[in-house]
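Q: Predict the bound structure with pyridoxal-5'-phosphate.
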Amino acid sequence: MRAQFRLQSGWANLALFYLASHPKVVRDAVNHLSAQVDANPLSVPTGLALPDGPTGWPRVRQALAAYLGGRAEDVAVTASTSIGLGVFYNGVVTRPGQEFLLTEHDHIAHRTAARLAAVKHGSTLRLGSWFADPATATADGIAAAVGEAIRPNTRVVGITWVQSSTGLRMPVRAVAEVVRRANEDRSPADRCLLVVDGVHGLGAVDEDVAGLGADVVIAGTHKWLFGPRGTGLVWVAPDVLDQLRPTFVSFISGGGAAPLSPGGFLAFEHAFALPVAVALHEQLGRARVAARITQLSTQVKQGLSRIPGVTVHTPADAKLSAGITCFSVAGHTHQQVVDHAATRRVRLSTSTYTRIGTAVINTPAEIDTALNSLADLTR
Ligand SMILES: Cc1ncc(COP(=O)(O)O)c(C=O)c1O
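A: Predicted complex:
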């Protein structure tokens, strides 16, 4: 698997969740399709093929649906998580005075999509808080906090499956249950929808996205899934489809969620190579991929907790975390930590905290190198 990647040698890249490096099978598929588009641009979108047969929007949606444990008609395709978030927040039918409820821990792309759409639609964005400290958060505490924060005018609860700011994995099923309870006496137009930014769960967590209990799940497929850069999806529960309006023209024919897919001529050689990335993950096995990611991130958390001066912000519980571990080093800014690790040929990243991401292709030895570089810094 490791040999599939053209990652710079001699470096431990523990930030692969930032943007996918294309595995060889994906590169080959993109090149194969690109040659066909160059030879005859009129071959898009229905005349393109991968070596094993035709590819196009139906195959892409089918491949994604199988991986999500859902139906192809419930999948819209986008070029990124950010575009999917825009599709959802611009498209959700709201009445003036209704609100979107998120938190500071949700990604700027998520908060901005909600804020911009709220301004247009006469709704508001409210930022709540699901925990005081991510490291000590519990599933019950988070679900209770969401339940208490929902108001009669809350139209959307927007959460992040795995937060890139804290590494915390939200207990989506438990949150879905409190949202379901809040909806018991509501009409469809007043119903509170649960939307999940799933980008750091998809390809990292062994769950059927379509069975999480969310109304809408949005994700890029160009991070943990190693899909072609510039690909993503929006999964819509069939019973909320009539609550969403398209924002862009769609060039994908068919009903269901297809009209939500932003159209125009796109990078078809990337979009139509997506089934190859999904097949690679299926060949590895979703459970095995998730187990490996957990094993490595557990090594990270345990190692970090033994280094004096390091504070881990991500929950230790594997059920409340996935492949991103966030931490701080006393006396050093996050950028200083990243820069120091780079002197040891270790790639880390920062947002709110310093982050170590453990992808399926990382190794225990790479984690040790990263931990040793941090131990050096604190000596
Ligand atoms: C939680 C989260 N949501 C959304 C995004 C934006 O993703 P995309 O680049 O696919 O738009 C990111 C980017 O890293 C992220 O971490």
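A: The chain has two domains: 13-19+286-378, 42-281.
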